[in-house]
Write a structure and sequence with these properties.
The chain is mainly beta. It has strands at about 1-5, 10-15, 20-25, 35-40, 45-50, 60, 70-75, 80-85, 90-100, 110-115, 115-120.
Length: about 120
């Protein structure tokens, strides 16, 4: 079992930056590709970013490419999402997730989910 706990969410004005963290406990994080998803009010949960087990491969949704950066520190069992140039449409609950395999997950491929952290971007 892997437990994932997100932190770092909050309220930010458009154009600002936030860094989310996801701390893992249980099994060694390095076994898993790690992901960030988000869910806006009234919308389905969507993929944001993923990083491979070693950190050498990353993938991003087109909507966040060049603004967000995912990284990981396996020694600290922690994954990060640096979010820059925030837009109101980035508002939502951000979820950390873990899965085995290539870092481009579907909802069905996720093995573990965190409980989420709220990000609100005001215009």
């Amino acid at each position: 079992q892997v437990q994932l706990v997100e932190s770092g969410g909050g309220l930010m004005q458009a154009g600002g930056s936030l860094r989310l963290s996801c701390a893992a406990s249980g099994r060694t994080l390095s076994r898993y590709a790690m992901d960030w998803f988000r869910q806006a009010p009234g919308k389905e949960r969507e993929f944001v970013a993923a990083i491979s087990q070693s950190g050498g491969t990353t993938n991003y949704a087109d909507s966040v490419k060049d603004r967000f950066k995912i990284s990981r520190d396996n020694a600290k069992n922690t994954v990060y999402l640096q979010m820059n140039s925030l837009k109101p449409e980035d508002t939502g609950v951000y979820y950390c997730a873990a899965h085995q395999g290539y870092p481009l997950p579907t909802m069905r491929s996720i093995d573990y989910w965190g409980q989420g952290t709220q990000v609100t971007v005001s215009s």
